[in-house]
Specification:
By secondary structure, this protein is an alpha/beta fold. Helix content is 35%, strand content 16%.
């Protein structure tokens, strides 16, 4: 920047190079920045709680693939955002969080050490100054994209409107950031003679922009032989495969192997041929499909962390399964109930898949009638044994349980049949998280957002509607939340209603913190602290300008059908009074590993 400019105005223009959307709550520390964002070309969405600024920006980044921006004031504004910031860090969401900070002269009674607080969450902070803020912003953006984490940018309160000035001296060795992966990569390259990687743009990519790691040829050949020898091959893809834009390569290798496919919850829809896909893997999986997964003899896992929930607490793969892992990082073998073989091909998912296809060689002649495993497995047809979900109809024909409240499976299945086809689903955390993943299909991975599961939080659902709506304004946003999380985030129910052109909010209102009831209540603890008096979410939604529907019988969902048929405009909130007597399958797995041998519903 050649001419002096007030820091807030200069910062807004610099941020506009990297982000086109900000979510914020104004306070003393960021008021001038927010005022300058519009002139700089950054659209601004106001939310009602600081945690919502980060949750909305997190959802925006996940759906759009562009860098989201959140902004709060200093002190209490920053600390209010910490839980959502921890979730974004655990979920590996690159984004910028621009906050007010203590004056350069020292902290005031209401200031806290924000850099240390962020560091405790594994998040790096950069403090702006009037000297060359351009370099600070560029470094922060590059770091966020390389390590796939949020980054905090602090604006000291006493210089928010001070005039900026360009750097007067070139950076020296003293300013080298040895904790930055790109710096280390550049130093390594300078010693080895390898090319130094170029700086990334602000599009959220597949991972760190560092010198490529690739498996050795002998590793690829060994993996290829293993796959060629497989009788029952399976390809399992996670969110990392989606971020690497590896859909075509996934489809090609599945076709080459004649393999069945499956995904994690955040990669649903990543495979191009749904007819051979067993659906979501783990606790949300269809039971017969998961039994089929367990019979695979070789599993190619692409970009999936294989956490305890995906692994069904170690029981996903059968004993003796050979697991080939493609991942950008040096991942450890998954925890399994029985022995499995594990081989890692480290590198970019798309590039390693392409190299593995090359190692497999040209496809051989097809056997008449088809001999591939996926052609021999029965039940893949629509409505087949590997597709059908239990909607509770056999047990509760009218959808009503013995306690007079609805079976959530019946509600989820009915809602899934009535939702607009062009939709993005976002889910809060809680016992109900399985229903959306089990009963509501999505067309592609970015159309399913789960803000809360990485850090095991609740109460971030409502503000994510604003982020998804900004990223996909022509699509219907469908939020799945509970009564506990909904009450925690109630301030941003107004945000959701105000910002979404088309939204369906489903509140699973069971009058309790369901996950606690189904674990600690089942252990015999007093359920009193776990219960919530029935809240009238339909009434609250109506008071804020939405259409609120109290759903006590399946016929009450006709209101959703009418709303969809009328054009699906505005917000409809479905206050679903569901029974605590129905326990989700994934929750039963949690009960089992905690020593509770609960029978299936």
């Amino acid at each position: 920047m050649s001419a002096p400019t007030a820091l807030s105005a200069a910062l807004a223009r610099l941020l506009a190079r990297h982000s086109d959307r900000a979510f914020g709550l104004m306070g003393n520390g960021n008021a001038f920045l927010i005022d300058a964002l519009a002139e700089a070309g950054v659209a601004y969405t106001a939310v009602r709680h600081e945690a919502g600024t980060v949750a909305a920006a997190d959802a925006y980044t996940r759906v759009s693939g562009r860098l989201g921006l959140a902004t709060t004031t200093y002190g209490a504004g920053f600390t209010n955002a910490l839980t959502a910031l921890a979730e974004a860090a655990q979920a590996r969401t690159p984004m910028l969080v621009v906050v007010g900070d203590a004056p350069t002269g020292g902290p005031r009674p209401w200031d806290v050490d924000q850099e240390m607080l962020a560091a405790a969450l594994g998040i790096r902070s950069y403090t702006l100054s009037v000297a060359d803020p351009e370099r600070t912003v560029d470094r922060a953006v590059a770091y966020a994209l390389r390590v796939r984490r949020p980054v905090v940018l602090g604006i000291p309160y006493d210089i928010v409107n001070a005039e900026t000035r360009p750097a007067t001296v070139a950076p020296t060795a003293a300013s080298i950031d040895l904790s930055d992966p790109a710096t280390l990569a550049a130093l390594t390259a300078s010693v080895s003679g390898a090319p130094v990687p170029s700086a990334p743009g602000s599009r959220v990519g597949a991972g760190p922009d560092i010198p490529a790691v690739a498996p050795a040829r002998h590793q690829l050949e060994a993996a290829a032989r293993m796959l060629q020898e497989a009788e029952r091959p399976l390809v399992l893809a996670g969110r990392g495969a989606h971020l690497a834009a590896a859909t075509a390569e996934l489809g090609a290798i599945a076709d080459r192997l004649g393999a069945l496919t499956s995904t994690t919850a955040l990669a649903r829809g990543v495979f191009p041929r749904a007819e051979y896909d067993l659906g979501v893997t783990g606790g949300f999986g269809q039971s017969a499909a998961m039994a089929t997964v367990a019979t695979a003899d070789v599993v190619l896992v692409v970009g999936a962390s294989l956490n305890q929930f995906t692994m069904r607490f170690g029981e996903l793969f059968g004993a003796g399964t050979r697991v080939i892992r493609i991942d950008a990082e040096q991942v450890a073998p998954p925890r399994t109930a029985g022995p499995v073989a594990h081989a890692l091909l480290q590198g970019d998912a798309r590039e390693v898949l392409a190299a593995l296809l090359d190692a497999l060689g040209a496809p051989g002649p097809e056997t008449p009638g088809g001999s591939a495993w996926r052609d021999r497995v029965a039940g893949l047809e629509p409505g087949g044994a590997l597709r059908v979900r239990d909607d509770g109809g056999a047990e509760h024909p009218d959808g009503v349980c013995a306690d007079g409240r609805l079976d959530p499976r019946a509600v989820a299945a009915r809602i899934g049949a009535l939702l607009p086809s062009d939709r993005h689903v976002t889910s809060d955390g809680g016992h109900f998280i399985g229903w959306a993943n089990m009963y509501w299909p999505v067309a592609s991975p970015e159309r399913m957002v789960m803000v809360g599961t990485a850090y095991q939080t609740i109460g971030l659902g409502f503000p994510t509607v604003a982020g998804v709506a900004a990223a996909a304004p022509g699509s219907t946003v469908v939020l799945s939340t509970g009564d506990g999380g909904g009450l925690m985030a109630l301030a941003d129910l107004e945000t959701a209603i105000r910002t979404a052109p088309s939204a369906v909010i489903v509140v699973w209102n069971d009058g309790a913190y369901g996950a606690e009831v189904h674990l600690y209540g089942a252990m015999g603890l007093d359920e009193g602290p776990m219960l919530i008096p029935d809240a009238d979410f339909a009434g609250l939604a109506g008071a804020l300008g939405a259409t609120g529907v109290r759903v006590e019988r399946l016929a009450d969902l006709d209101a959703l059908a009418a709303w969809t048929q009328a054009g699906a405009r505005g917000t409809i909130l479905l206050d679903c009074r569901v029974s605590r007597s129905v326990v989700a399958d994934y929750q039963r797995e949690i009960q089992r590993v905690n020593g509770l041998d609960a029978p299936a519903a």
